[in-house]
Amino acid sequence: MNKKTKNLIVALIWATAITLLCALGVFRSPELWLEDMLYQKPVYIPDDICLIGITEDDIKEFGPYYSWDRTVMARALEALNKDPAKKPAVVAIDIQYSGRMDEEGDKRLAKAAEDLGNVITATTATFGQKRTFGSATVVIDDFSILDYEEPYEELRDVTTQGSINIMYDMDGIARHYFLYVEPEGKRVYSMPYQAASLYAKSKGTTIRMPETDERGHFYVSFSGKPGDFYEGLTLSQLINGKVDPKFYAGKIVLIGPYTTGLQDSYITPIEKSSMMYGIEVQANVVQCLLDGNYKHKATDYYQIGILWIVCFAFYVFANNRKLRFTIPVLIAGVGLAVGVSIWMFSLGIIVHALWVPLGLLVLFVATVAENYIRAAIERQNVTRTFERYVAPNVVGEILKEGTENLKLGGKTVDIAVLFVDIRGFTTMSERLSPEEVVFILNRYLSMTSACVERYQGTLDKFIGDATMAFWGAPLADDEAIYHAAMAALDIVKGAEELSAKLKEEIHEEIHVGVGVNYGPAVVGNMGSERRMDYTAIGDTVNTSARLEANAPGGTVYISRSVADALKGRMKFEPLEKPIKLKGKADGFEILRLIGPEDNA
């Protein structure tokens, strides 16, 4: 399986895994958080809704809230109807008045509501799990209405009823509202819907019904944060005649608790850091209905398909690519996805805003991690390959060039090539024992390797008693010729020192000849995929080997190209008796390297 096919298979796996996790709702909580941040923004609030809050000031004036009789609300409705020409268009009371309390208060409230007209009173449903047993099955409904409360009879008969149930989403945020509830099969619309409908009717218009799910829920676009709809009007101010009718004349008036002590507050998507009172939630829902600013969810099937395609394409693009290319594409992709989500929302369509950005981010991290692991493995392979050729301090430099050096094939570069071997080694090996030959060779080859390594050369190979090394590959070396020359002189010196030791130890001496040449050669991995050698081939290499073959013991032969490069830094001299190298035309000049110039 080639690299491209593997990349496509891994891309397919990643795209499928991310798409499946998103489709299963694994990331639903962070997705809702992002959608709230993108979609729920405060807007200009029209002057159609007036809130009358039941506050701590009212409790101080009328006593504990739960001790109030119904004459308190009756007096409020009477105050709103004091000037029939300036009365509200609709009054919605976000308080439950089920059951009888005292006859006088009950009658007075019902009478005040009837006289005012267009009063909406609250109903509440209690939801819970209900099990219906069949002959062989059990149907479980987790959202069954277990109990339902509505106003007492006299008040119910003279008002419009609206449910005030506020629902939470799975993460405890009130993003949706009931358009209706259906206790015992009877459909009862919500208080905000009733208020918006009656208000629109008073203006000679109608409102458009929102699209709901199977339970009657619809998504609410909040217009204001906590406090945006509220102008500080209290129930006691209204009753005491301190509220100018201009605040509520011809408008929708919502009356309800506006203090934490009455426990009627909720967390909303437009502002999670502070609670929103029930009548403020109702006001936002009413405004949403009046504006017809409805949103519906886009079909998941299309979004799943788009997500899979984007993830697959991004992985194929980002895998094994440098960050300077992937980061801009990532930023552009995330920005485009977010921008499209906001634009779709403005058109009334809710899309999964997190899916594409999350998929891109996950794949970006995955490809970076994969590239890092792959690079680490490749670095290890490079190290294993090149540590056989070059000094350890050069391996680190080779790693910076990546793994192209590990592929079969080569490239033409100018290199300095050195050959060295022992003079008379064949004759020596014939008279010595195998153990003595190995002993001498190991000492000698260790010495030549150390000299090559000292000058950052690439140790190519050992051929019997010969050593081949070169400079200028795999790393460029501006001092390739000089380094090769210094290594050659060190080898000659090292051979003399080793020879003195061997004479003492086993009564044997060694003398080496060295050849150095410079020129173009093909350098790279030669062989097969299973067995390869990093080496250099070409006329430059062959010439260096022939220079070495003709050099007497203790001598370094160099070509004219090497001598010209070393002029002023090294001393050299022409041979007393010129030598003609095999395969070289007449006039190919050979010189003997003496050593560094005194001032070098």
Question: Keywords, please?
Answer:
single chain; 600 residues; alpha/beta; six-stranded mixed beta sheet; 18 helices; 22 strands; rod-shaped
Layout of strands and helices, then pairs:
Elements: H1 3-23, H2 28-39, E1 49-54, H3 56-62, H4 71-80, E2 90-93, H5 103-116, E3 119-133, E4 138-149, H6 153-158, E5 160-163, E6 176-178, E7 180-181, E8 188-189, H7 191-202, E9 217-219, H8 235-239, E10 252-257, E11 265-268, E12 271-277, H9 278-291, E13 296-297, H10 300-318, H11 323-346, E14 349-350, H12 355-386, H13 392-399, E15 409-422, H14 425-431, H15 434-454, E16 458-463, E17 466-471, H16 480-506, E18 512-527, E19 532-537, H17 539-550, E20 555-559, H18 560-566, E21 570-574, E22 590-596
Parallel strand pairs: 1-10, 2-3, 2-10, 3-5, 13-14, 18-20
Antiparallel strand pairs: 3-4, 6-9, 7-8, 11-12, 15-17, 15-18, 16-17, 18-19, 20-22, 21-22
Helix pairs in contact: 1-10, 1-12, 4-5, 7-9, 10-12, 11-12, 12-13, 15-16
The number of helices is 18
- Largest sheet entry: 8 strands, mixed
Helix content: 40-55%
Q: Tell me the radius of gyration.
A: 46 Å
pLDDT < 50 stretches: none
N-end to C-end Cα span: 57 Å
Residues in β-strands, percent: 15-25%
